[in-house]
Amino acid sequence: MRHSAHFWATEHMNQRSESAYATELSRQQRRLWEVECVVRGSALLHTGIALRLDGKLDEKRLSHAIGAVFRRHELLNTGFRADGETLHLGPAAHDEPRVAHRPDLCADQAGHLAEIRRAAAAAHAKTFPLTGEPLARADLTLLGDHSAVLLLTFHRLVMDLFSLHQVVTDLQEAYLRGPDEPPTPADRYSAILAAREHRRSGDWEFWRTELSDFPTPWIGERRPEPGWLPDGAELSVPLDPDLTGLLRENARAARCTPTVFVTAAAARRVLERSGAADLVLATMSANRMNSDAVGPLAQAVLVRVGAAAPHGDAGVLAQVRRGLREGMAHQGVEFEEIVDLLTDGMGVARETWPR
Fold this sequence. Notes:
Number of domains: 2
Order of helices and strands: HEHEEEHEEEHHEHHEEHHE
Largest sheet: 4 strands, mixed
CATH architecture of the largest domain: 2-Layer Sandwich
């Protein structure tokens, strides 16, 4: 491809002005910062993606695209400086992508792939010094088969998995567009937070009603502690193709998504096994109202199942479908605030897990 490299990404994303930066932490970021203070010096809160680039690669054009994408997103354009356990935010300059030449390695050779992954893991694990720099960086490795690997590393203070896909697509568009074509303006991450604040009173009322009279005996709690520094791991277990097809077929028949169907099946099984008549389960979501902005907004959504009749398969599915829809529409209240509502506001006992 002329003046292009192929990025393995699919979603669309607009772009925004390069001048804005964040001035204060959101509630989710404050919780992440508490964890970072405990695990400082580890890469526990890093996230990112390694992209294999095929085709004719223009390094300068790619470098410009990376800088442009990083600068026009509010949180990626913010510098973070730690002063003890206080975090200061301000504008920051981005470094050029680090470039490594590895003509001895080829991505298509199995033996070389392990070394490429090892090098990417080492680069990903390099911690951010928190001295006023942005929490986003890029490492480009040029291989001997004329392909390349681009590693994007972020701190979770500025990035969640939902946003990661958007940034990759944005980067592809910026590279193809080139430095002379201006980006399309987009909304800021702070605008999403402001919208959530505006809805908070209504969201609180929803959750008070939704969780009223829930008879939870206790809620376990475990915080990271000094010396608790797991390396982290990811386990991928592909489903059998026949099972995958069956899940999709059943979801279509039930007129819902596979996620809703699997969540309902899990809830039904828990109700059967436990003998409980009332259940609250949590499932991850990324309910971003505006997909043009980047920031850590993914969180858990609580779904109550069993309190309403009927209790059969169709009834549980209907409750899960409604619970997910309504819960995602009332995410102005954070997950831990809802836990506090259950424990402090409703008299539910709260226990700390044994150390």
